[in-house]
Structure formats: structure tokens, C-alpha cells
Design brief:
Helix content: over 70%
Order of helices and strands: HHHHHH
Number of domains: 1
Distance between the termini: 21 Å
Length: 161
């Protein structure tokens, strides 16, 4: 049964489960890269942020407008790292490659992910800027929004069924 579930023709339900597992792994990679950048190079964690309180990451006292810009930069860097891992895993375990040549498939995968990231980052940065939302909560909203947009694009546009 495990072999059938792991195969590419396991059906839509198991495909979504595998997609979610790859997505969870990619999210961990993206979060690790994001917090590495957010606590060092891009410094966008405000005092009181959950990552500051729970993980002891350094906070910075800056305005919400500057914090929203730094959030977007840290998100873009983390996205780049996580997206490559995600493409490789989706191609190997979730979707059937071959609808397009690998370089075109990667380009479409990256472009779709970039659109999803742009929309979700725009929303999250706006929530930080306009409402002073906590960086960590904005990152969670960004991840959930990107997940849904990316699944639809990958399932119905980029890969074969």
C-alpha cells in the first residue's frame, strides 16, 4: 500500500497529501532561511514578536514601514532557497514531470511561485505596515496563502495531472 501511495498514480487525495508533506518540508526550509535573514541581514523582528520571545532571536526598534520592506526582502531570499528544494521534491515525488521540458517547467514553477509569493507578501507587508501586525503572524498568513495558490497552479497548469 505504501508503494502505491508513493507512486505518481496514487490518485488526487494522496497526491494532495504528498504535496502537503513536500509543502511542509519546504515551509520549514523557508522559515529557517527567513528567520536567519530576519534576525541578521534584514533585521525585521520587533520586540514582542513570537520569534523574539520564544526563540530568543534579536529584535530591532524600527518603524512599521521599514519593517515591512525588510520583511519583503527576507521573504524573497528565503523563497529562493525553498522554491528550488520544493521544485525538486514535487518533481520527484508528487507530480509527473514531462508536460514541458525541465527548464520550461522550472521557469513556470518559479514564476507561479513568484506570483503567489508576491501576492501573499504584498498582503502580509500591508498588514504589517497598516495594522502593525506581528512579523511572525504575517509570515504565517503569507505561507497559507502561498500554499493554496501554488497547489492550484502546479496541479492544473505546470505538471501533468
Amino acid at each position: 500500500m505504501l508503494r502505491r501511495i508513493l507512486s505518481r498514480d496514487s490518485g488526487a487525495f494522496w497526491q494532495f497529501v504528498k504535496y502537503a508533506a513536500v509543502g511542509a518540508f519546504s515551509t520549514v526550509v523557508q522559515a529557517a532561511a527567513f528567520y536567519a535573514l530576519a534576525s541578521t541581514v534584514c533585521k525585521c523582528l520587533a520586540p514582542g514578536d513570537w520569534a523574539v520571545e520564544l526563540a530568543g532571536l534579536p529584535a530591532v526598534e524600527i518603524g512599521d514601514a521599514e519593517r515591512s520592506v525588510r520583511f519583503a526582502v527576507a521573504s524573497a531570499g528565503a523563497f529562493t532557497v525553498a522554491n528550488i528544494a520544493c521544485w525538486l521534491l514535487n518533481r520527484a515525488f508528487v507530480f509527473t514531470p514531462g508536460k514541458y521540458r525541465w527548464w520550461k517547467e522550472f521557469g513556470m514553477f518559479y514564476a507561479a511561485s513568484a506570483v503567489a509569493l508576491g501576492l501573499s507578501t504584498g498582503l502580509s507587508a500591508a498588514l504589517i505596515h497598516a495594522r502593525g501586525m506581528m512579523t511572525t503572524l504575517a509570515a504565517a498568513i503569507q505561507a497559507a496563502t502561498s500554499f493554496l495558490i501554488n497547489y492550484a497552479m502546479r496541479r492544473f497548469v505546470i505538471f501533468k495531472g
